[in-house]
Structure formats: structure tokens, C-alpha cells
Amino acid sequence: MKYINSRRAANAVFHKAEPLETNGDFVEWWGPACGARLDLANASVSEAEKPEPWWPLCPKTKCFGPNKKGE
Fold this sequence. Notes:
- This protein is mainly β.
- The chain has strands at residues 2-6, 15-23, 26-32, 43-47.
- It has a four-stranded antiparallel β-sheet, with no helix packed on it.
């Protein structure tokens, strides 16, 4: 699973990442599943099987809200 967060925001949370723009099989841009507005030029995409316990997670339903903990 891929996660995206803003590297510059002091209150950045991790979002579940989904492809925004693809070029064949290659994903060029990732964005938050919940549709939050991020400065994608200053966002980082991480890949992990599940979120690390210390990551602050987005509380919106499409990311990690109720019943969607990324596990």
C-alpha cells in the first residue's frame, strides 16, 4: 500500500495514496484518497504493508477513518 503526506506542513498526516495520473503502467502522480488538497510538489509517497504506529493518519473515511485503519 502507498501513503502520501506533505513534507512541509507542520500538521501533516498520512493519507492513503491513489493514482491521479498514469502513463501506461507507470503512475506519474499520486494523491490522497480522501481528496485533501496537498502541495504535490512537496509531498512524499511512502510504501509499507501497513502504517507505522507513530504516523499521524488522516481521519477521513476514504483514508483511515472508521473501519479503515490500513491493516
